[in-house]
Amino acid sequence: MLASHFPAGSGEPVDVISTASSAGQVRAVLAGTPGIASVSQPLAKDGEAFLQATMTPRPDSTAAYTLVDKIRTTVHAIPGADAKVGGGTAINKDVESAATHDRNLLIPLILGVVLIILACCSTRSWSARCS
């Protein structure tokens, strides 16, 4: 019953901050993005505007992470908007991306350094120095 009346992402909306002058255009682009169920009216203060977009996919799904990337691409293309996309889904996606990047970089690097140390210690000239 709950799923039929509320989109899956209603508990974790995407937050967008842009310049107040481009808030209408940002809202229109967000509303036209497939996977967005609704977009709040912009709240403007001190030259900036805040909007929330409700996604149709679950906020912890791969589809939601892909949608965050799509939203970032579309709002960043608006001239003068200086849009920033955040919210729980965006944060989780960014943390996951950073962890994957670090894992793919650091583990091979560490293994390479250990291999070099072991190779140096296995030669006769270095064996006395390594022990």
Radius of gyration: 23 Å
- How many β strands by DSSP? 5
What structural category characterises the helix and strand content? alpha+beta
End-to-end distance: 69 Å
Q: Number of helix segments? A: 5
Mean pLDDT: 89
Largest sheet: 5 strands, antiparallel
Strand content: 15-25%
Reading the helices and strands in chain order gives HEHEEEHEHH
Low-confidence stretches: none
Helix share, percent: 40-55%
Shape category: elongated
Short description:
This protein has 131 residues and is α+β, with helices and mostly antiparallel strands. The protein has helices spanning 2-5, 23-31, 62-76, 88-122, 124-130; strands at 14-19, 36-39, 43-45, 48-55, 84-86.
Structure characterization notes:
- The protein is α+β, with helices and mostly antiparallel strands and 131 residues long.
- Helix content is 53%, strand content 18%.
- The chain has helices spanning 2-5, 23-31, 62-76, 88-122, 124-130; strands spanning 14-19, 36-39, 43-45, 48-55, 84-86.
- Strands 1, 2, 3, 4 and 5 form a 5-stranded antiparallel sheet that branches.
- The chain is elongated.
